[in-house]
Amino acid sequence: MRRISEILTLLGILILFGSCKKDIEIDYHTVAPLYVIEASVTNDGMKARVSRTNAMDDNTTTSDITGATVIVTGSDGTREQLFHKGKGIYQSTAIGTPDVVYTIDVEIDGQHFTSSSTMQKEPMVNDFYFIRRKIVGENFLMAKLLIQDIPNEENYYFAHLYRNGTGFRWAVKKDDTDPNKEQQILFTFAREGSNDKDLPKEGDRFRLEVRTIDRKSYDYLFSMQQMDNTGTNPIPDFTGGCLGYFSAYSQLIDNYVFRYASVSDEE
Q1: How many whole angstroms separate alpha carbon 159 and alpha carbon 201?
Q2: Can you give the pTM of this predicted structure?
Q3: Cβ density class 222-240: b for 16+ within 10 Å, e for less
Q4: Is it the case that residue 69 has pLDDT exceeding 70?
Q5: Does residue 84 share a domain with residue 201?
Q6: % of the chain exceeding 90 in pLDDT
Q7: How many CA atoms lie within 13 A of 124 on its CB side?
């Protein structure tokens, strides 16, 4: 047994030193830069961010595009040009109208990228609060969002929770399992008493954005949600071969402060 132990120790040392001396080369293919467009028409205005990806050996993540022409047209005959405000951001104060189909066209150096989305009615939030729920004998802190479904139509929802100004949790929801009734979204944080960085602290500030979105936007965001499991990219949203997505939606925004005294115990 002692001899075997000595052999295993020697092998471990050889492997350790061998691995320290070996150079690891990463063989990656050079990919041409792609344009990225993140755009929206909302009940608060129109906005688009236009950028371009960089090579892997470039330290920056994206390059902002300042010379694009961004036009949004509606099925009601409206037409708006979004003007550059800096850092690749194009904006207009024009707001969207529910049930209108909006199409965005972004022209960059003669290339056109287009996408369409249908504006939705404003969401109805019934409640949002923090809860404590026991899972396998451990208490976990969560947040519960209750949305009143818009009756007699197919609806899709997107909720984004920010913590102290930074994106924290997001989720999409469709009303196919319980239409016309209250829709529930749970955001799980962390085990109570742990050192997990996701565990809320007393006084943390949360901003909640709740959107009603169309089926196309839901499908894109759901595909993003599944990326870790499928190992694939989100489904394409623009014609012309760029990345990103365009969504017309109505949105509600509210702010909350986390207090342990207000956490409710729920089964």
Answers
A1: 21
A2: 0.83
A3: bbeeeeeeeeeebeebbeb
A4: yes
A5: no
A6: 74
A7: 10
**E strands, 75-181, in order:** 79-86, 89-92, 101-108, 111-118, 124-135, 138-148, 156-163, 166-174
Are 136 and 260 within one domain?
Answer: yes
112 and 132 inside one domain: no
Query: Are the CB atoms for 104 and 62 separated by under 8 Å?
Result: no
User: 86 has which bridge partners?
Assistant: 89
Determine the Cα–Cα distance for residues 64 and 49; give it in Å rounded to an integer.
8
Q: Where are the alpha helices (DSSP H) in the chain?
A: 2-21, 215-225, 227-230
> Looking at residues 112-133, what average pLDDT do you find?
97
Q: Are residues 132 and 91 part of one domain?
A: no
CATH of the domain at 210: 2.60.40.10
Query: Tens digits of per-residue pLDDT, 128-157?
Result: 999 999 999 999 999 999 999 999 999 999
Q: For residue 189, which phi and psi values (nearest 5 degrees)?
A: -100, -80
Tell the burial category of 147 from Cβ atoms under 10 Å away from its Cβ (0-12, 13-18, 19+): buried
Q: Determine the structural domain holding residue 54 and report its residue range.
A: 35-118
Among 84, 46, 35, 36, smallest CA distance to 248 is for 46
Pairing of strands 138-148, 182-191: antiparallel
Domain finish residue from 118, 142, 175: 118
Q: Examine the domain organization and report whether 96 and 51 are in the same domain.
A: yes
Q: Map residue 106 onto helix, strand or coil.
A: strand
- Rounded Cα–Cα distance for residues 158 and 116 (Å): 18
Number of domains into which the chain is organized = 2
Residue 8 is predicted with a pLDDT of 40
